[in-house]
Prior knowledge:
- Helices cover 33% and strands 30% of the residues.
- By secondary structure, it is an alpha+beta fold.
- The chain has a four-stranded antiparallel sheet with strand order 1-2-3-4, with helices on one face.
- The longest helix has 16 residues, at 2-17.
- The chain is globular, with a radius of gyration of 17 Å.
- Mean pLDDT is 77; it is low at 20-39.
Amino acid sequence: MTIGILIGIYAAPWVGRHGIDLSEGSKAASPLNGLMESAPDAAIRPSDETAKDELFRLSNWDISMHGTGSTVAVKRCISIGKDSIACELLAHLGWVDGEKLVEAVFEGKPGTWRMVAARER
Length: 121
């Protein structure tokens, strides 16, 4: 069952991009269609700079000391509620070797995103 769920999670975006219509014929596919339709595009998700600022704020890191050598890139996001999105971030922190994959939840609206939770993946 777990394997089926994982395959569904990873296959849903691919199916949506390739134009396969799951809405006709299978009632079980309808929740996936809603998620794909509500997935935010680059215009309404947090900018890389906002994600960096919010990650530093939420983690209580000193951005004036470590921010210059650090970057955060928003890779992809999905809507999880009316004013909430979950995003995958790729963080390169100046004091850590390599890049870290971070999952984060933002609340708000375009231009006012506020990170409310984050964890390293």
